[in-house]
Structures are given as C-alpha cells and as structure tokens.
Amino acid sequence: xxxxxxxMKKNFLLLFCFISSFVFxxxxxxxxFLVKNSDEKSDNNNYFDTExxxxxxxxxxxIYRYKTNEVRLFDYDKGMTIYFLDKSKNNEVLYKYTGRExxxxxxxxxxxxxxxxxxxKDIFAIRxxxxxxxxxxxxxxxxxxxxxxDLLYFYKLDLGNITPQKILNAFRQKLIQLRGNSxxxxxxxxxxxxxxxxxxxxxxxxxxxxxxxxx
Length: 215
What we know:
This protein is mainly β. The chain has two domains: 5-105, no CATH class; 113-204, no CATH class. The chain is 8% helix and 50% strand. It is built from one helix and 13 strands; from the N terminus they run βββββββββββαββ. The chain has one helix at 162-179, and strands at 5-9, 12-15, 27-37, 50-55, 58-66, 70-75, 80-86, 93-102, 113-120, 123-129, 136-146, 184-192, 200-214. The protein has a nine-stranded mixed beta barrel with strand order 1-2-13-3-4-5-6-7-8. The longest helix is centred in the last third of the chain and has 18 residues, at 162-179. It starts with a strand and ends with a strand.
C-alpha cells in the first residue's frame, strides 16, 4: 500500500510514500511535447489538449496528461498503466494516485509490410500491410522538421507500443538512408486506421527539453 500523492519541485518528481516495489521504479523524462487535435479551433496559438513526456533513451514508458487533468503513465516493460489526477498548484506539481491496471502487450496491427514514401520535401506517407495480397491496414501522413536529435514519436496513435515502435524503427532507417541521420521531430501526423472512421490528425504545438524524474 502506498500514499496517494507525490510532488515535483525543480523538475524532480518525488514520491513520499511507502512504495510497493512492483509499482514504481525510477522514471526519467527528457522531452516534453504539447500537442492538439488538428480540428481543434482556438484563438490561442499556444493551446494544447495533451502533454506527453518521453525518455528518448527508453521508448517503453511515457506519460500522457490530458486537458481533463487525468494523467496516465504507460509502462510497457511492466505491462502496467498507472492513473493519477493532476492537482498541481503554484509552482508545485501534485499528482493524486487513483489506480492502476495491468495489460498484456500485443501487436495491434499486423504490419508484415511497411511502405514509406517521401511525397514532398519533409512530407512522408507510410502504409502498412498484413500481406502483399491485402489492402493497407494503416496509413500515416507525416510532416517533419529538423531537430537537435532524434525526437520521432507518434502522438496519440492508440496502437499500444509494439506497432508504433516497429513502424518508427523502419521510418528511422529510411531517413538514415535518405538523409544520413534521423534527427527530426514530427510536427503533424494524420492517422487513417482504414476501418471506416474519419482520418484523424495531431499537430505539435511546442516541445522542450526537460529533466524530470519520478522516484
């Protein structure tokens, strides 16, 4: 059993509690993305609906904070989602623990074939296929911007972690082949799941380097 609150000061997120060892280890985050759905209308150019924290050295865990102040830490190494509410005030970040769930990771899309084409400068189309005989089961349109390091990440792809990482690795190899490196960030991502739903888009509002640790 552990205490339901933890705090962050000066970019360090500290857990003041009795911790069950199977729940928390140390999580480090070095980049923060602020994103919004492409169809969101706002007069505020800095408006975003989701904050994403990542570790560029370990893609197997990340945090999503939504505009409802719900916070989710996805840990694919442990097969666990940890839920919080953001109760931050003043200069202190306060997350209230609300629960956790375990899951078994599987590939959400069978992506035996990954087709990547540069349709215009810094604009790429990616399609995945279950087999050569079948239609594409996922289509992505990506707009890139040069960055200080590899910051490639599929915002809000909603396909777990195996499928996005498989596609990202193929995309990185394509960029290295074409450009000599993969030091880019995605500024716009359109997703077509080819299942009858409308195409959905996400835009990057802002990103920044951080040094945040959960202990």
